[in-house]
Amino acid sequence: MKEFLFELKTRNETLFYFGAICLFFALVCFILSKTTNTQVYQVNAYLKPLKFAFSTFLFSWAMAWYCYYLQGFNVGLFNGSVIFLMSFEIIYIAVMASKGSTSHFNTSTPFYALMFSLMAVAATLVTLYTAYVGILFFMQSFPNLPSYYVWAIRFSLIIFVIFSFQGFAMGARLSHSVGLDNDNSNLFILGWSKTVGDLRVAHFIGMHALQILPVLSYYVLKNTKATIFISCLYLILAIYSFVTALHGKSIFHNPFK
Which of 16, 82, 122, 189 can pair with 9 through a Cys bridge, CB separation 3.0 to 4.6 Å? Predict the structure, then answer.
């Protein structure tokens, strides 16, 4: 682990520290979720900024690692864009959580509607920038890297972009649930609905392909065909989760009934 952290810091010190700050903030939110009673949508209000901060931590460190491989990439501009846009989202979500109010889907006033729209713009810009990184991974060659590892990164970026944009399916409905309005459960931190469709499941699975597929390929699969096959299965899983949610069914339902 020490070797990984040292290498990550060497590759991109800026995103290394930004990710570390996000991880620390997620820990603070976790403590607040255990010591406060403020709720939003039937769960502790601080779980939402916790999830966004932790997800941003994972994204920042993953992109810091992958962008190092690109030739001629303006990493400084990418770093600045990610830090500015993601910080805006996390800070606003945390402020609204402290008030016991919603950040996403909140159009109760013109100001809140504007802030919700600006969060959507921020997420879109980060996703488009990530898509550009994905294009570069297809355009450039990486003779010093195993082909299976490169393909895992490529697939992970494609799936991330697709299911990052899937977030608009929630924004359009002003709800992450299909069947009830923003239903949550007591499922640890995630809070996915156990009774109706939850669009966050596919969103989660798709976006975290960015970490799962390259690690799985590099350390376990070690084969290009196996990597492509597993990546396709992973994509099918994310699509299945999305379609299941659209039909108003929880991911925990029995599909054979």
Answer: 16
According to DSSP, residue 36 is labeled -
Burial 146-184 (b: 16+ CB within 10 A, else e): eebbbbbbbbbbbbbbbbbbbbebbbeeebbbbbeebbb
Judge contact between 137 and 70, C-beta under 8 A: yes
Q: Tell me the DSSP string of 239-250.
A: HHHHHHHHTT--
What's the pTM? 0.94
Phi, psi of 94, deg, nearest 5: -65, -40
Q: What is the pLDDT of residues 140-197, one digit of tens each?
A: 999 999 999 999 999 999 999 999 999 999 999 999 999 888 888 888 889 899 999 9
Length of the chain (residues): 257
